[in-house]
Design goal:
- The chain is an alpha+beta fold.
- Helix content is 55%, strand content 16%.
- The chain has a 6-stranded antiparallel β-sheet. A 5-stranded mixed β-sheet has the order 8-10-11-13-12, with helices on one face.
- Helix 2 runs antiparallel to helix 3 (87-102) and helix 4 (113-146) packs antiparallel against helix 5 (154-212).
């Protein structure tokens, strides 16, 4: 990721002060050069039109202006107090007085505009008042000293002072407005500088945090470009490249090729959001890597799509361990199934022997029940291992069936078990409801739910069953009056091999596979199972299936 080094605001403050001092020096030089240029131009005209006699006073003023111009250019005004700079425009007023005394009718009084504007703009109200009063006093003195015998009317005396006052006031107001704008811009620049420093610091922190985590992070921009990646993502890419996979990807089963359009990045670029997509990289027979990828969409301040964040984790060890566990379970269950089937067969033959004593027959029946229970556990474990690998044996063949008939058939087979604990099974809530489902698989689900409702019920409790249908779904309800399930246990209730603390405390046997397999079967039909429970009151399991069409010839169960 790109790194940014924070920049201190303090380091820029001396530069701003130096910039302000240089501005004062440049302003003084420009003002004086402008006045000097005008005087030089006028002097060339005067020399060309008048004789050299009687112009000593005029040239004295010109020399003063040129000297002041040179002084302005030479003196380092950034090293002296700003008040000393006012001497230059004050002496300019005196120099212009000499020019006007020498040539009264030359219109040199207009040159007082330059120093008065300078004083008003650079020195505030004192400069405005002092400049205008000084220029007006010089004007009156020059008018009276040059022609004392002439009668000066009020218009002659007031016109130039009024012009000087108006120009100076305009210069003063403009300077104040400019200073206010400069102050505002300075504050804004300082705020932006602080904001930039804070933003860089936050970006640096985010960068360090992202580089510290062990999962890959990719920020995809609005235009589809990769805006941000972290070091862990680079490590994952190098690990995948080391498998010589040529970026070939496989689905979560590890053997089915994953099309390019279904790969995580392509899905994120299309605007999809998803959780924990497992992708295998590398050939099935060689070294491989498994990544779990999650994508989240981002929104801007207007609520529009602003790209996505894709998070990937290396789950090779976990996925390999799960596959090894499933392979072991499948191997063990396959090996156990054959001898158990043989044991049950010989037990049936022994029980059917009319010459066997009653006591021995009872012992054999106990052995048969336990063998059947063990065979059921083995079947559950085999189904779980096959479902986790997407085995074809776990597929469903849906048909239009009446779920009420399936439920009644399940109840009939479980009545002896319910009678042992005096549990009442209430079927009054069953209604005809046709679902699109596999009757054999659905019977497996119903058997498991009713069996659990009996097992975890209290002696003398009740199991209430119900079925109904609406426009697009069929609903099956199994309610008991048993132990109940806490909210914490409900979160893991449908996980394989999960058994809650409440159940383990009762000492009841189980594998924790029944509900996980039941949910897989229901979801394979396009439905789902949910649970509502209150500890000490009971639990209610609700199964949703897609609705089917009524078919009178459909049987509740297929052989």
């Amino acid at each position: 990721m790109r790194r940014f080094t924070p920049v201190s605001v303090r380091r820029e403050r001396p530069r701003r002060g130096l910039f302000a001092d240089q501005t004062r020096a440049r302003t003084a030089a420009l003002n004086q050069l402008l006045l000097g240029s005008v005087v030089l131009f006028v002097t060339l005209l005067v020399v060309g039109q008048r004789s050299g006699t009687g112009l000593e006073t005029y040239f004295l003023g010109v020399v003063m202006i040129f000297v002041l111009t040179g002084v302005t250019m030479v003196v380092p005004w950034n090293r002296v107090a700003p008040e000393w700079l006012a001497i230059i425009p004050v002496l300019d007023i005196v120099a212009i007085l000499f020019l006007r005394i020498a040539i009264p009718d030359g219109g040199f009084g207009l040159l007082w505009v330059f120093p008065t504007m300078w004083l008003a703009a650079g020195f505030g109200v004192p400069g405005l008042c002092g400049g205008v009063l000084g220029a007006c006093a010089a004007f009156l003195y020059s008018a009276l000293a040059a022609h004392p015998e002439q009668h000066l009317n009020v218009y002659t005396l007031l016109l130039l002072p009024m012009v000087l006052l108006a120009v100076s006031a305009t210069s003063y107001l403009t300077a104040r407005r400019t200073a206010a704008q400069r102050t505002l811009l300075s504050k804004q620049a300082q705020m932006l500088s602080q904001l930039l420093e804070r933003t860089r610091s936050q970006e640096q922190e985010v960068t360090e945090i992202l580089d510290a985590v062990d999962f890959g992070v990719i920020r995809i921009g609005r235009d589809g470009g990769i805006a941000v990646t972290n070091e862990a993502h680079g490590h994952l890419q190098r690990a995948i490249a080391a498998t010589d996979a040529d970026t070939e990807a496989y689905r979560d089963d590890g053997v089915t090729p994953l099309p390019v359009e279904e790969q995580p990045i392509e899905r994120a670029l299309r605007g999809e959001a998803f959780d924990d997509q497992l992708v295998w990289f590398g050939p099935p027979e060689g070294e491989r890597r498994a990544l779990s990828v999650t994508a989240r969409r981002l929104l801007d301040t207007h609520g529009e799509d602003a790209g996505a964040v894709v998070i990937s984790r290396d789950v090779t060890a976990e996925a390999t361990a799960l596959r090894a566990r499933d392979d072991l379970v499948a191997s063990v269950t396959h090996e156990l199934r054959t001898p158990l089937t043989s044991i049950l067969g010989y037990l049936d033959l022994a029980i059917d022997d009319p010459d066997i004593p009653p006591q021995a027959r009872g012992n054999l029946e106990i052995a048969e029940r336990n063998a059947e229970r063990l065979l059921g556990i083995v079947g559950d474990m085999l189904a779980a291992s096959q479902a986790s690998r997407g085995s074809a044996e776990f597929s469903v063949v849906p048909d239009d069936i009446d779920v009420a008939e399936v439920i009644r058939a399940s109840v009939e087979s479980l009545l002896p078990r319910a009678a042992e604990r005096a549990v009442l099974i209430d079927t009054s809530g069953l209604e005809v409801a046709f679902a699109r489902a596999d009757s054999m698989r659905l019977r497996q689900v119903i058997d498991n739910l009713i069996s659990n409702a009996i097992k975890y019920n209290r002696d003398g409790g009740t199991v209430s069953l119900g079925s109904t249908a609406d426009d697009g779904s069929v609903w099956i309800l199994v309610r008991d009056t048993g132990l109940g399930i806490t909210k914490e246990e409900q979160a893991g209730l449908f996980q394989r091999f999960y058994r809650g603390d409440t159940v383990r405390a009762t000492g009841m046997k189980g594998t924790g596979l029944g509900l996980a397999i039941s949910r897989d079967i229901v979801r394979a039909h396009g439905g789902d199972i949910t649970v509502r429970s209150t500890p000490g009151v009971g639990s209610t399991f609700i199964v949703r299936l897609p609705a089917g069409s009524p078919n009178p010839s459909t049987k509740g169960e297929r052989s």
